């Protein structure tokens, strides 16, 4: 029986490899401009295959690559967006590997809960988000200056980073648009570039972006109730 099981497994493995080869061949020949295929796996839906390109971009196809589908795969029984869940796993960031030495750390109350945020000083959504964030207590905020909206954002980020009290300077700017004057001309601002490189590597494409303890990213200006719910659930 054991020999039969092994033989059956080998047959299925060979069939799967053959189907993957066929899918790759047909897609490459028929769509020359299609991005390089990084992985092909069986999708949760019978007869459907997941085609992953460019890290976290998902397509679906049949066993021969005759058809290509772009969109979300929804489990109607559980009402789960399987494609979204898959992308979340692919784009997850290990919280412990965040560049904390380059962060501005703000502690409120006991600071027992943790929150990591990537923000641009010229981001209007970030300023709205910051107003809601003021309502959250007993949290340690790891703020990563992520100036991706142009040269003025970079200049403001450097000014804030080089201020005597970085946390206060950030809050003064985001809440009251009061930017400190540049005081330390010899300030090392390489931390900002390192954060930008880290964000690009992990495809953090917008601000604000929150990173949870389990590595999930939460893009956009969520409100205080949503932040508190995530903290209560142990996400942060």
Describe this structure as you would to a colleague.
The chain contains 7 helices and 11 strands. With about 240 residues, the chain is of the alpha+beta class. The strands form 3 sheets. Strands 7-9-8-10-11 form a 5-stranded mixed sheet. Strands 1-2-3-4 form a 4-stranded antiparallel sheet, with helices on one face. Strand 3 and strand 4 form a beta hairpin. The radius of gyration is 23 Å and the shape is elongated. The termini are far apart.
Secondary-structure topology with pairs:
Blueprint: H1 2-30, E1 37-42, E2 49-53, E3 57-61, E4 68-69, E5 74-75, E6 80-81, H2 82-90, E7 104-108, E8 113-119, H3 124-133, E9 139-145, H4 151-161, H5 166-176, H6 190-201, E10 209-211, E11 217-219, H7 224-232
Approximate strand percentage: 15-25%
Number of strands: 11
Q: Tell me about the biggest sheet?
A: 5 strands, mixed
* Uncertain segments: 4-12
Order of helices and strands: HEEEEEEHEEHEHHHEEH
CATH architecture title of the largest domain: 3-Layer(aba) Sandwich
Shape: elongated
CATH topology of the largest domain: Glutaredoxin
Strand order of the largest sheet: 7-9-8-10-11
Features:
7 helices; 39% helix; four-stranded antiparallel beta sheet; Nuclear Transport Factor 2, Chain: A; five-stranded mixed beta sheet; 20% strand; 11 strands; alpha+beta; 236 residues; elongated; Glutaredoxin
């Amino acid at each position: 029986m054991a020999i039969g099981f092994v033989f059956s497994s080998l047959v299925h493995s060979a069939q799967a490899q053959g189907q993957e080869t066929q899918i790759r061949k047909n897609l490459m020949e028929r769509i020359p401009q299609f991005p390089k295929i990084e992985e092909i796996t069986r999708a949760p839906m019978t007869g459907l295959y997941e085609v992953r390109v460019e890290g976290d971009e998902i397509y679906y196809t049949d066993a021969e690559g005759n058809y290509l589908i772009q969109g979300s795969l929804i489990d109607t029984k559980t009402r789960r967006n399987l494609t979204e869940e898959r992308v979340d796993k692919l784009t997850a960031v290990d919280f412990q590997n965040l560049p904390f030495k380059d962060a501005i750390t703000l502690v409120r109350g006991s600071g027992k809960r943790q929150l990591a945020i990537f923000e641009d000083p010229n981001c209007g959504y970030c300023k709205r988000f910051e107003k809601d964030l003021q309502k959250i207590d007993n949290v340690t905020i790891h703020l990563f200056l992520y100036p991706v909206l142009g040269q003025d954002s970079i200049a403001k980020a450097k000014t804030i980073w080089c201020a005597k009290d970085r946390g206060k300077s950030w809050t003064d700017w985001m809440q009251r648009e009061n930017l400190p004057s540049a005081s330390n001309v010899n300030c090392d601002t390489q931390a900002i570039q390192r954060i930008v490189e880290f964000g690009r590597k992990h495809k953090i494409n917008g601000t604000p972006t929150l990173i949870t303890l389990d590595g999930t990213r939460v893009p956009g200006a969520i409100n205080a109730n949503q932040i508190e719910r995530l903290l209560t659930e142990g996400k942060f």
